[in-house]
Amino acid sequence: MSTFSRMYPRRQWLSWLAASPLLQAQTGVIAKPEEAKNVLDFEAAMKARVSAAHFGYMATGVDDDLTLRANRTAFERYYLRPRRFVDVSKVETTLTLFGQSLTSPILIAPTGSQKAYHAEGEAAVARAASATGHQMVLSTVTSTPIEAVAKLYARPLWFQLYPTNRWDYTERLVKRAEAAGCPVLVLTVDTQGGRNTETEARAAGDEKACSACHVPQAGVLRFLWRSKPMFAGFDARGLSTHNTAQTWDVIGKLKRLTKMKLVVKGLETGEDAARCVELGADGVIVSNHGGRALETGRGTLDCLPEVVSAVGGRVPVLMDGGIRRGTDVVKALALGARAVQVGRPYLWGLGAFGEAGVSMVMQILQKELLLAMRQAGASKLENIHARLIGKH
Predict the structure, then answer these.
(1) Beta 261-267 vs 283-286: how paired, if at all?
(2) What are the residues whose beta carbons fall under 8 Å from the beta carbon of 324, sequence distance 6 or more?
(3) What pLDDT digit, counting tens, does each position of 57-94 carry?
(4) Within its chain, how far is the Cα of 1 from the centroid?
């Protein structure tokens, strides 16, 4: 029996309780997606419906969650300098990225184990991303097979790769993504050293159903076999999704292995970004894994300018971490990002209301982006530049 099936009666009751008008009146928790004023409204709604352990896994940073908070507070140090007397009767958010035409610079970040938050998991997210026109990046540790997600998503998926400690298995993951029609491979490099997720550990303390997938003595073996379809058929004994021995040569090996565009995710310094470009990466993503890799205390928005400078326009630079508002997107683009990724906000929507929640989260962010662009005097993404922002 899966973790979800064991917990379903409890979740069903929590969902009913969270939808109660009485509870909403007492707590302010929204009962349906349309009641949300901003994406933050979905966090409490998700917390009311999802198990404490799974909510804790989503919410956790590392150590004292300092970097998690830094991702958000970094945006508060920048202010916007709007320009007036600009015709913004029509605002365009389309862009071309890695040879694809996208309707928005706001992307669906790869997040694993989405069925921990809702029974439909990645399927619900794929449908919502299709309906709202946002590019979806699927995680290696998806809880829904890539082929099934690809059928539900209206455009080609991008695939995020955790390079395992066995190259033959890494090859199989890459080839499976390529066969599913993915044009972009997103290599994640910021968790190979492990991490200390204290918030998750505290939240999981009282969950009895976790043994269905998480068994200490079985470790990765049970977890991958039961919960992660990308590892079906693998001998998981001794297998790790993070390769502590990984070095720079992985970029060349992946470039030779696949025709997909290779984007390196998890960079925080200009030196590493420049080296990735020199070795053939087609793009880089400034990311600290949502504040859940190393407790650096530095937000990704603070890392962005030095990465953009080091790359020097040779490849696109993307970023994630702390995006909660349309104005956040404008600030990131003004500092040189071509696009941004959001993770937790759409998971809040997923855990609270499934597909409808994800759809509303992305609609709110897109609506706020359009509003911010109009007020800033930017009718196109190309009009968002460094002169539109300042720093306190």
Answers:
(1) parallel
(2) 38, 39, 40, 72, 75, 345
(3) 999 999 999 999 999 999 999 999 999 999 999 999 99
(4) 28
Q: Are 286 and 300 in contact (CB under 8 A)?
A: yes
CA dihedral 239, 242, 245, 251 (to 10 degrees): 120
Q: Which structure tokens are listed for 227?
A: 């919960």
Q: What share of the chain is helix, strand, coil (3-state, %, to 5)?
A: 50, 10, 40
C-alpha angle with apex 220: 216 to 221, nearest 5 degrees? Answer: 100
Please tell me the distance from the alpha carbon of residue 244 to that of residue 234, in angstroms, as a whole number.
Answer: 20
When computed from its CA atoms, the radius of gyration of the chain, rounded to whole angstroms, is 20
* 207 conformational bin, left if phi > 0, alpha if psi -120 to 50, beta if neither: beta
Structure tokens at 33: 């997606």
What residues are labeled active site? 289
For residue 7, pLDDT beyond 50: no
Decide if pLDDT at 298 tops 80.
Answer: yes
- Measured from the Cβ of residue 329, the count of other Cβ atoms closer than 10 Å reads 27
